[in-house]
Specification:
Elements (H helix, E strand, L loop, with lengths): L1 H20 L1 H5 L3 H19 L5 H24 L4 H4 L4 E5 L2 E2 L1 H6 L4 H10 L8 E6 L5 E5 L2
Antiparallel strand pairs: 1-2, 1-3, 3-4
Helix pairs in contact: 1-3, 1-4
């Protein structure tokens, strides 16, 4: 039972950690970020199982994470007030060709990053964009002017 409680605490910590990190950081992994995630995973595994390398320890810790993931998914779909706590809402970063600097600052992004993403989608200039929305998953969606 001790492993299940530690796994639940580690799960809650990870949900909070990734919520605080922000969506933009999670959508654009650099090599260092990938290494950091692997190290975090190893540290959490050691903290959850306290170096218990038994099959039971593995099944309990992984099973706890799986059950909590499904439970969190169920909660976000059924309980309205949980969704904004766990999932980021889309945010408009360009409106009618104008960059909304305040929204970019809040998401720790630059106008150059938005323009680069637009160019990758064959949009020459942000002046051609009616709306650019930073989605909850960290990706940018563009709606061009007609």
């Amino acid at each position: 039972m001790d492993i299940v409680l530690r796994a639940a605490l580690a799960f809650a910590f990870l949900v909070l950690l990734f919520r605080v990190l922000g969506r933009r950081e999670l959508s654009s992994f650099e090599p260092f970020d990938l290494i950091l995630l692997i190290v975090i995973g190893d540290l959490i595994q050691q903290g959850v199982t306290q170096s218990d390398y038994s099959l039971t320890g593995i099944l309990l810790s992984v099973g706890t994470f799986a059950v909590l993931t499904v439970a969190l998914s169920f909660l976000t779909s059924r309980v309205p007030w949980v969704r904004p706590v766990v999932e980021a809402a889309p945010i408009v970063v360009v409106q009618d060709g104008k960059v909304l600097e305040q929204n970019l600052r809040r998401e720790r992004m630059t106008a150059e990053e938005v323009a680069a993403e637009a160019r990758q989608r064959q949009i020459r200039s942000l002046d051609e964009v009616e709306w650019a929305v930073l989605e909850g998953n960290g990706r940018l969606s563009f709606i061009t002017k007609r």
